[in-house]
Amino acid sequence: MKYSQGIVLLTIALSLLAQSQAGVQGGGISKADVLNHAASERPKRAAHFVGSESCKGCHAKTYTGWKQTRMANVVRDPRVQADSVLGDFAHPDPVRTFGLDEVALVYGSRYKQRYFTKRGDDYFPLPAQWDIAKKQWLPYHVEGGTDWWFPFYGPNNLDRPTGPTCDGCHSVNYDVETKQVTEWNVGCEKCHGPGSEHVAHPTRMNIVNPDALDYVRSNDVCMQCHTQGRPLHNPIAGRYYDWPVGFIPGKRLADYWQLEELKPGTTNFYQFAELTAHKNRMQGNDFVQSVMYHRQLRCFDCHEVHGNQNESNLIRVGNDLCLGCHTRSNPAGLKGTVSEHTHHPAKSAGSQCAACHMPHIEQTIKDNYVAAHTFRFITPEETEQSGIPNPCTSCHRYKSNMWAKEQLKEWASVSPWRVSN
Predict the structure, then answer these.
(1) Are the C-beta atoms of 326 and 332 separated by less than 8 Å?
(2) Main-chain phi, psi angles of 214, to 5 degrees
(3) Surface-to-core class of residue 257, CB atoms within 10 Å of its CB (0-12 exposed, 13-18 middle, 19+ buried)
(4) 44 φ, ψ to 5°?
(5) Around Cβ 82, how many Cβ atoms within 10 Å?
(6) How far is Cα 397 from Cα 381, in angstroms, rounded to an integer?
(7) What is the CA radius of gyration of the chain?
(8) How many CB atoms are closer than 10 A to CB 152?
(9) What's the burial of 110, exposed, middle or buried (CB within 10 Å: 0-12/13-18/19+)?
């Protein structure tokens, strides 16, 4: 075996030497060139996951920025990070029937925090969650008629392991056989794929860069978790999974995952009747319906996933983000001022692009909502037809849909057929 490898290296060296002699004026071939070429000729092994710490040495600034994001801190061990616990465990509450000593992992830090306990080699959700904004305990129990996987698990939380229902999106490389992860949280390799080859021989060719992928595959990187759907093949290893088992960045998500079926005219757990999502974790379901997606925008054209300088990891704040692209020279840009477009005073809440095009109507926890990502303007007429909230009466809460329609008819700068019918 060693003799064969020696012959290969000698052949490579002689070949490179001949190339260097033929082009000696170009500077020749170094010893490093020989070794690098030899490495490239070795039989290739499948890359494996090595964890985000392996990226820190070369990508220190990016690593430090990512480490501050919620992506890097979705799931935490309260025994290691005591400050990760946001819920009130100091005072009794009839909703919370468990103590902090039963909590193995905490999940979430923005809208809600949930608590997982460990039984054997599985984690299970405990039956209360902390509403961060209102600082109160709420029950946590998936009911019938909600998540599609409900019929395949028992009625109690301790019948519903988080491995099949949650952990694939809250970790890197969850193994369905061993129930082990390379690391908890949305680590580097969740978006860049297994990094062992890149760590051993760093080149742009042996790591996935979502920015270099086509727009479908680049968005698939985010949509592997920010969509509601189900695997193409279930059960897997005897369990029903609610995340795309086997998908890694660079592959086509559609080969592993089907989005929840759109049902026009139906309002259910997943959607409004006009097809905008009804719940959180469906940003991708919304986005693929949008003009922006079909114009080949990517999630990270708006979101900076390696830092938390702005809310929701946005690359700019407020209208500055939207107007960076929607300029006067853009056919989809403004032709006048923002206030002329919105018919609201400049810099007011009603003149924020997101107020009308990304209303907070998708529930993440009781009375807490996240932004829609279809970017459509939802009209008062659509509210009357399908029950979906519209941004006009969501802001002007004491006004009627009829009032809103009459107001929109007076907007001479937009089509009445579009906004008031």
Answers:
(1) yes
(2) -65, 165
(3) buried
(4) -80, 130
(5) 10
(6) 16
(7) 26
(8) 14
(9) middle
Contacts of residues 263-272 at CB distance under 8 Å and 24 or more positions apart, as own/partner, are 265/386, 267/386, 267/387, 267/388, 269/145, 269/146, 269/147, 270/228, 272/361, 272/386, 272/387, 272/388
The residue written with tokens 């033929």 in the block is: 22
Question: Residue 298 in contact with residue 287, Cβ under 8 Å?
Answer: no
For residue 370, the SS3 value is: strand
Question: Pick from 114, 142, 138, 143: which is nearest to 126 by CA?
Answer: 114
How far is Cα of residue 320 from the mean position of the Cα atoms in its chain? 22
Let me know: does 360 contact 353? Beta carbons within 8 Å.
Answer: no
- Where do the H-state alpha helices sit in 325-400? 338-342, 353-357, 380-386, 391-395
Spans of the chain, pLDDT less than 70? 1-45, 420-421
Structure-token pair, residue 6: 């020696």
Nearest to 301 by CA among 289, 313, 285, 284: 313
In whole angstroms, what separates CA 234 from the centre of its chain? 23
How far apart, in whole angstroms, are the C-alpha atoms of residue 228 and residue 283? Answer: 9
Nearest alpha carbon to residue 184 among 86, 81, 105: 105
Q: Bridge-partner residues for 371, per DSSP? A: 360
The C-alpha atoms of residue 380 and residue 377 are separated, in whole angstroms, by 10
Residue 2: per-residue pLDDT: 42
Instruction: Give the β-pairing of 136-139 and 171-172.
Output: unpaired
* Residue the block writes with tokens 């809310």: 311
**Cis amide prior to 151 (ω within 30 degrees):** no
368: Cα separation from own chain's centroid? 19
122: helix, strand or coil: strand
Q: Is 385 helix (H, G, I), strand (E, B) or coil?
A: helix
Distance CA 374, CA 288 (A): 8
Eight-state DSSP code of residue 164: I
Looking at residue 299, what is its pLDDT? Answer: 98
Q: Which helix (H) or strand (E) holds 36?
A: helix 31-41
Give pLDDT, residue 16: 43
Query: CB of 245 within 8 A of CB of 165?
Result: no
Q: Are 259 and 288 in contact (CB under 8 A)?
A: yes
Look up residue 68 and give its amino acid. Answer: Q
Pairing verdict, β 229-231 and 183-184: unpaired
pTM assigned to the model:
0.88
pLDDT, residue 24, reads 37
